[in-house]
UniProtKB/TrEMBL annotation:
It catalyses: N(6)-dimethylallyladenosine(37) in tRNA + (sulfur carrier)-SH + AH2 + 2 S-adenosyl-L-methionine = 2-methylsulfanyl-N(6)-dimethylallyladenosine(37) in tRNA + (sulfur carrier)-H + 5'-deoxyadenosine + L-methionine + A + S-adenosyl-L-homocysteine + 2 H(+). InterPro entries: Elp3/MiaA/NifB-like_rSAM, Methylthiotransferase, Methylthiotransferase_CS, Methylthiotransferase_N, Methylthiotransferase_N_sf, MiaB_methiolase, rSAM, rSAM_horseshoe. This is Mitochondrial tRNA methylthiotransferase CDK5RAP1. It comes from Odobenus rosmarus divergens (Pacific walrus). Residues 240-494 form the Radical SAM core domain.
Amino acid sequence: MHPLQCVLQTQRWGPLASVSWLLLRTCRAHSNVPSTACPSLERQQEDGVRKDFSSRLASGPTFQHFLRSASAPQEKPDMEDPPPYLTVDELLGRQRKVYLETYGCQMNVNDTEIAWSILQKSGYLRTRNLQEADVILLVTCSIREKAEQTIWNRLHQLKALKTKRLRSRVPLRIGILGCMAERLKEEILNREKMVDILAGPDAYRDLPRLLAVAESGQQAANVLLSLDETYADVMPVQTSPSATSAFVSIMRGCDNMCSYCIVPFTRGRERSRPVASILEEVRKLSEQGLKEVTLLGQNVNSFRDSSEVQFNNAVSTNLSRGFSTNYKPKQGGLRFAHLLDQVSRVDPEMRIRFTSPHPKDFPDEVLQLIHERDNICKQIHLPAQSGSSRVLEAMRRGYSREAYVELIHHIRESIPGVSLSSDFIAGFCGETEDDHLQTVSLLREVQYNMGFLFAYSMRQKTRAYHRLKDDVPEEVKLRRLEELITVFREEATKANMASVGCTQLVLVEGHSKRSATDLCGRNDGNLKVIFPDVEMEDVNNSEVKVRAQPGDYVLVKITSTSSQTLKGHVLCRTTLKDSSAYC
């Protein structure tokens, strides 16, 4: 019999779409205490707690109970009504200290804030000192093999910390959250016995319960994906109190099923938050004084809020010209243009960005809105992935090179001065040298301002893993990647040179990491701008000299550029509204 025991939760603690399951292993399996050690009174008490937990677990819900409850109305876990094998007190953090580490994309940053919000309400405390942590949680990424290897290496480092834990302190618990937990599931628990809990991207509400189970000496996991979880009612807690910007998750999952991508298998199907909950979060961030929000989603511009019946009409989603989808057209709901319009009205002095979009979801109404609103940044991320139509077809991207280039021209005509960024993959399955050169030529033709380039990493479960062959040698992938990076930097430097002599609005983030006498911030195109920390005029009070602070808008005249950074001298402090007369 497999040593892992599966326990199905009642409907109260997880609907069929996100049924919560536990992987349980006895404490002896990962205890550092020799079996011959004489038990102390404290150990006897711990054994009593485990026996009590086991007896309560045995009397808990059965599989038949779960089947009878499967059609019950969906409800969120309630601290007032814990599962049968736990008490309310056991679900509380009791001021244990949590240390959070975040790896990967912006969605993981937002997930960290969601997870911490849930734990904070359960009575846990946050620490930034690893040595004093009682719980260490790693929010992980699975997009490439290198990202996962980073976590395995980190676990080896943490193993020593857990081994040296003083017996006078509560046991150290280590958890893996996010996409890596979702992809590998029990493989992590089998490979690393020192991992106590796993929580997939849709299971953060379950963290108090998982940690309570771990306190009994068991391993616990919930990695089931949900069809409806968006954490719409969870207000993320900002992890950086001095931050000037924040991420706001508006949708989760992805339906595109690109052949190389693991995201649909680690984050599930697309589902969007209700517009009202998003606007409420943005208003609260504005009240806190934040000056920039980035709307987040794996396919952010395919947003479709279908929570309100009156908007579920038969109108199909509008796509960019020449683009197609791998799924049936979606109908009804409030679309991304509506959300973008409403968010931009919350605070005219708050910048709005969004990422990561798919090129297929840029209808004219979205482009027109970006052009018209001063506080919607004139910057668009447009992932190409390849410049070869043949490779794009193998990737199942839903467009040709020609359609993509036509969209680039249309965007630049619709939004003069727009800043463009993109993603590219070097060495995808079957990529020839000619395919690679077509990608090089696309980089030269478009001249992106920013780029994110990677060598292809085959991921299990993807369509490419099952149907294609990873036949480009590693050394060829790396050589092609270096060539793409070189060309990108050359062209980005040329594109950024157009900014020299221009005055740009910059949102100040703080001091430059390389110089205490310089400040840094970002312009409308999301490029980093460095300028001296000196006194300046305020447009609203020219008689007073001020120094820029994080969260201030300043006008900077650009004097030099590189592929990634602009430099200049500051002119004055201003507002987003007043800056339009100068930029």
